[in-house]
Amino acid sequence: MLTPAMTRETSQLVHLDSTSPEAGSRKPFFGLDATALSTHLADFGEPEWRGRQLAEAIYHQWITELDAVTTLPKPLRARLREAGWEVGRPRIVQIFRSLDGTERYLVECQERNSDATPETIETVWMPEGDGGEAGEDFDFDEDGRRQAQKVWSRATICVSSQVGCAVNCRFCLTAKLGLQRNLTAGEIAGQVVAVLDRQGVEVGRDRVNLVFMGMGEPFLNYANFMGAVRLLVHEVGLSPQRMTVSTSGIVPGIETFALEPAEARPKLAISLNAPNDTIRGEVMPINRKWPMEAVLDAVRKVRLRPREHITFEYVLLGGVTDLPEHAREAARLIRRSGLPAKVNLIAWNPGPGIPYTMPSPEVVESFRATLVAEGIPAYLRQPRGRDIYAACGQLKRTVEGAHQN
Ligand code: SAH
Ligand code: SF4
Question: Are residues 208 and 320 in the same domain?
Fold first, then answer.
């Protein structure tokens, strides 16, 4: 669903240069950590510290062409290229920009589909500026990097973990695509670095949050998802405390996640979306495999950091999950779980062929107020936040529509 700020009239579609000619036959360095890079460079007779040098170039300096990695000797670069290696960072190929500064990207993956066409995924940048930036246009240089003064004080990047999704939640657009394929760790982390680069983010200084809430179920692509987190933490230098992963409730994934060391573990969000197993089983068939209590048992195994909360996301479906008794029942469930929790309410975004209705703003607000009265902190995702969910299967359609004009 497009929010008003994202309609064709108010948005700007930017086309960038697309595929490189040899793409597909090349091997990407992006996605390998410094140790793995060292191992590959050892095949070329290079000492171990060369791996660190290359990691510095691709994860700190954000260099995208092997030829520009001048810390590596020129003959080595040539040999690497001949052997098929490239930096291979996913590339932003199209940008859909709203007047409020939100940008949605088509990002081209490293790995080609079986028919050699490039796969594209969706990533969203949501600046939460001080309000003074609305309608302001930014200057970008030839490489698409922002030149103007930063107008946001903090921002959020919404990251995809799979192309499509196999989970089949009844209200979700991504479900309609089915699972096309898993993303690699490099493709997941690459979305983030491509956006940091475009926005001129200064890691360690700027407040940028990551939410793994784009297309896909991260816990059904666990190794690659956590591989990406480790790259982003250990190589790029982002804080895991500014990352949140959302799951529909994949119990084995949550149990493995509970064992991750705190220094590379994002915060956890659970898509609750209903007050009891009956309704949840209807809107999220996965609940029949892993019912609510099994999910909550697994979540209780996560050792939380001081002051850390579990977020419960709750999509309000008109007449189905948004009644006052649902709010009271959800509050009871969360209280009984004993977890330090907060609820993020999301008014459902409609999509073609999906048989639900949007709740009215009054219903949304009264649902929130009921949760709060029951002692559960509850927040409403603002329309900008909804853009995340609009990205569930709709960005490509939007872009195609714009092409035809
Ligand atoms: N697969 C993961 C993460 C991606 S979905 C998960 O389900 O948690 C991120 C969030 O978007 C989930 O909380 C999901 O319930 C919500 N969502 C999906 N479709 C939506 C829609 N049409 N409107 C509003 N929220 C939606
Ligand atoms: Fe997959 Fe999440 Fe959509 Fe469910 S809500 S179909 S788990 S992306």
Answer: yes
Ligand 2, CB within 6 Å, residue ranges: 165, 167-169, 172, 174-175, 216-217, 248, 271, 392
Question: Can you point out the beta strands (E) in 272-396?
Answer: 310-316, 341-347, 378-380
Q: Is residue 1 part of a domain?
A: no
Residue 172 and residue 31 share a domain: no
Give the CATH number, domain containing residue 82. 1.10.150.530
Q: How many domains does the chain have?
A: 2
Residue 17 falls inside a structural domain: no
Pocket test for ligand 2, best of 179, 212, 217 (most atoms within 8 A of CB): 217
Pocket perturbation via mutation, ligand 1, pick of 2, 212, 310, 392 by most ligand atoms within 8 A of CB = 392
* SS3 category, 23: coil
**Ligand 1 atom nearest residue 217's Cα:** 1
Q: What is the CATH number of the domain that holds 192?
A: 3.20.20.70
- Is pLDDT above 90 for 3? no
Q: Which ligand is nearest to the CA of 268?
A: 1
Taking only the tens place, the pLDDT of each residue in 322-373 is: 999 999 999 999 999 999 999 999 999 888 889 999 999 999 999 999 999 9
Q: Which residues are catalytic?
A: 122, 392
* Position with higher pLDDT, 359 vs 10: 359
Residue-wise pLDDT tens digits, 289-326 = 999 999 999 999 999 999 999 999 999 999 999 999 99
Residue 345 gets the label, from left (phi > 0), alpha (psi -120 to 50) or beta, of beta
Residue (of 225, 198, 201) closest to 211 by Cα position: 225
Domain co-membership, 37 together with 175: no
What mean pLDDT do residues 193-220 have?
A: 96
Q: Where are the beta strands (DSSP E) in 159-238?
A: 162-164, 179-182, 207-212
Give yes or no: residues 169 and 219 share one domain: yes
- What are 139's two structure tokens? 């200057």
Summarised one tens digit per residue, pLDDT across range 235-246 is 999 999 999 999
Domain that holds residue 35: 24-86
**Residues 73 and 14 sit within 8 Å (Cβ to Cβ):** no
Tell me, yes or no, whether 95 and 129 share the same domain.
yes
C-alpha closest to that of 189 among 248, 241, 234: 234
| Cβ atoms of 292 and 333 closer than 8 Å | yes
35 and 123 within one domain: no
Residues 99 and 69 both lie in one domain = no
